[in-house]
From TrEMBL:
<protein>
    <submittedName>
        <fullName>Beta-galactosidase-like protein</fullName>
    </submittedName>
</protein>
<dbReference type="InterPro" id="IPR013738">
    <property type="entry name" value="Beta_galactosidase_Trimer"/>
</dbReference>
<feature type="domain" description="Beta-galactosidase trimerisation">
    <location>
        <begin position="366"/>
        <end position="437"/>
    </location>
</feature>
<dbReference type="InterPro" id="IPR017853">
    <property type="entry name" value="GH"/>
</dbReference>
<dbReference type="Pfam" id="PF08532">
    <property type="entry name" value="Glyco_hydro_42M"/>
</dbReference>
<dbReference type="InterPro" id="IPR029062">
    <property type="entry name" value="Class_I_gatase-like"/>
</dbReference>
<dbReference type="Pfam" id="PF14871">
    <property type="entry name" value="GHL6"/>
</dbReference>
<dbReference type="InterPro" id="IPR028212">
    <property type="entry name" value="GHL6"/>
</dbReference>
Length: 644
């Protein structure tokens, strides 16, 4: 049975304050319909219940007294159903009031000093305790018994290491955590904070607690109301990603696209909901997001096959953010082309692995390679490293490993099997290299001889690339080539870099910066240096091209086009055929998105067998000539639908 949320939909979230309980339901629904949304994410329960709860551990919103019915949820569900709009329930079980915290200290977060975490009079609870493990289900049952809610989202379901002020509070030390951790890691002490021994083990432990809770909630809802999905982590019915800005956080312009791609690559058939925040940051929730910045949240989400969602504080009347105009335009575009977005899944043939969060240096490498592929028009998907052994790699021609370092046995077996079966791998940095051991049998390396991984060790270090020289930035591993390995990008010996009179003496060495060889029916290439980090930090196109040329040689599909590098090409496949999103990235600027400049028409080569192409933004059919189309001028974006 196909469920409603397995088809495209569009959401609008009103994150209500307690004083909003008297809102005009019909007025909000008028706004949603004009906006293009057909689903309303409404604050239902948890910290405050916007309905008359009978549970003694829940608090009914006192402002419900302003409603004749005393029931906001009931009024909203009834009015929305009359218009064919679905209502999903936003729940927040992360905090309880002082009275419940006093009655049930065993539910609460406890820091290393033995103190609870109290913020604005509310006490944080811990997922290990019975408020999450037991009482949460009683709340869901009460809501389901009363209302035909169309789904649930659980906000801030976490271990609350960081509070609303972004103050680090450490690892929870409640009795539930102590007991569960002793069972998970016998003999190991529960760490106190991120600097404590065993913190990485605790992070895996906490992820498993939350994954188990997610699975239980999902099963509970499926038994009670199968048509009501759970919106949460990457194991839920609908994967949740919040696209947001934050004061003090460096802007990664591709964050939304990256996260959606990671989820859709892992489980292509599972919807991803990108909840795009209409304000700048939680402490500055009255300040609307820059429209061109907000547009990127929705565009990147839609291009990768996600459900667009817009999120505001309060009601549309209270917070008419400037970005809501363009948000409505894009939401209506998705509505008007719903058939194009039905079953939209990734269709790239190159896969870029996103490093584990414990490898911050590798994240920079990943971002440099991400930019390189994007700018050279190589469509690609993203997959988290921890999911590598869970995905069939057979649909990809090339898999890129960005400076991943030590790999798990499962990942090693997966990669070696993939290459042996005919795939290609391009690895950078120290992927699969541990001390002098080479974990991956497919790599054309006998052993690692030494590692230059400090700024001092790589300063003045160059690689020869034809008539050009590329600086090594980050790290370089000296490796012994395996039998039959093709080598290139030979290193130059270091020489003084000052004063100018002494800047000479570089000699070519036999240490390769590139090694490649067949393995089984496939091929593996290693660039034993951080070429991605070099491009991210320095921006030399020589770094970018040295990497992308290897991907192309390995079989990575580069789109032949005269469009400039500022056009991002996202390849997808939906119920209507091949879908190509062309995103105008000319507005990507330092710590912001500016208004993109129009990009003039240019030729683009199509996949084999395409005979007709529709340009949805231009609103016309394009002529196909020798397998190419002339793309119209691109404003914010263009979408091409190609048919055989």
């Amino acid at each position: 049975m196909r469920l409603w949320w397995q088809d495209p939909f569009r959401m609008f979230q009103t994150n209500l304050r307690e004083i909003d309980a008297g809102l005009d339901v019909e007025r909000v629904l008028d706004y949603l319909e004009e906006f293009g949304a057909n689903t309303w994410l409404l604050s239902v329960g948890g910290i405050l219940s916007n309905y008359p709860t009978a549970l003694d551990f829940q608090t009914a919103n006192p402002y419900l007294a302003e409603r004749p019915s005393r029931d906001l949820v009931g009024d909203a569900v009834k009015a929305a159903a009359a218009r064919g709009i679905r209502v999903m329930g936003r729940m927040d079980f992360s905090k309880i009031d002082h009275r419940r915290a006093e009655q049930h200290p065993e539910w609460c977060f406890v820091d290393a000093a033995g103190d609870p975490q109290v913020y604005n009079g509310l006490t944080s609870v811990c997922p290990s305790g019975d408020y999450y493990q037991v009482k949460l289900f009683e709340v869901l049952d009460e809501v389901l018994d009363r209302y035909p809610i169309d789904g649930f989202f659980c906000n801030w379901m976490s271990f609350n290491e960081v509070d609303y002020s972004r103050r680090y509070r450490g690892v929870c030390q409640c009795l539930g955590c102590v007991r569960r951790y002793s069972e998970y890691a016998p003999g190991e002490r529960l760490p106190g904070d991120k600097n404590s021994a065993g913190y990485e083990t605790w992070q895996r432990f906490s992820r498993e607690i939350l994954a188990d809770l997610t699975a239980r909630i999902r099963e509970h809802l499926a038994n009670r109301r199968p048509e009501a999905p759970l919106v949460l982590g990457d194991r839920a019915d609908i994967v949740f990603h919040e696209a947001n800005n934050a004061i003090g956080r460096p802007l990664w312009h591709h964050r939304t696209s990256e996260h959606v791609s990671a989820a859709k690559t892992f489980r292509p058939e599972v919807p991803v909901l990108t909840n795009s925040v209409g304000f700048v940051d939680m402490p500055y929730r009255l300040a609307g997001e820059e429209p061109h910045h907000f547009a990127q949240y929705l565009l990147q989400a839609m291009a990768r096959g996600a459900v667009p969602s817009t999120y505001i504080m309060g009601t549309p009347d209270d917070n008419p953010y400037a970005c809501l105009g363009i948000a409505a335009e894009l939401t209506r575009f998705h509505r008007d082309h719903q058939d194009v977005y039905r079953e939209l899944v990734p269709a790239a043939t190159t896969l870029l692995i996103r490093p584990d969060q414990f490898k911050p240096g590798a994240i920079t490498e990943f971002q440099g390679l991400y930019l390189s592929l994007l700018q050279r028009h190589v469509p690609f998907d993203v997959l988290p490293e921890e999911r590598l052994a869970e995905v069939d790699l057979g649909r990809y021609r090339v898999v890129v490993l960005p400076d991943l370092g030590p790999l798990t046995p499962e990942v090693v077996a997966t990669i070696d099997s993939y290459v042996g079966g005919g795939g290609a791998v391009v690895a950078t940095g120290n992927s699969g290299l541990v001390a002098d051991e080479v974990q991956l049998a497919c790599l054309p390396v006998r052993r690692r001889l030494a590692s230059h991984d400090t700024e001092e060790a790589t300063r003045s270090f160059h690689l020869r690339s034809g008539d050009q020289f590329l600086p090594v930035v980050g790290a370089f591993d000296l490796v012994e080539p395996g039998d039959g390995a093709e080598v290139g990008l030979l290193a130059m010996s270091r020489a003084p870099y000052g004063p100018p009179e002494k800047c000479h003496g570089h000699l070519e060495l036999d240490h390769p910066g590139r090694l490649s060889a067949p393995y089984g029916r496939g091929r593996a290439t290693l660039l034993p240096w951080t070429v991605g980090r070099a491009y991210r930090d320095v921006g030399l196109t020589g770094h970018r091209d040295a990497f992308v040329d290897e991907v192309a040689r390995a079989g990575g599909q580069q789109v032949d086009t005269e469009l400039p590098e500022q056009v991002e090409i996202v390849m997808g496949r939906s119920a209507v055929g091949t879908v190509i999103h062309l995103l105008n990235r000319s507005g990507d600027a330092d710590q912001r998105f500016a208004k993109p400049l129009p990009i003039g028409e240019g030729w683009l080569t199509l996949p084999d067998g395409v005979t007709t192409v529709e340009a949805l933004c231009a609103g016309r059919r394009l002529g196909v000539e020798d397998g190419r189309v002339l793309v119209p001028t691109i404003g914010l974006f263009e979408v091409l639908v190609a048919h055989p």
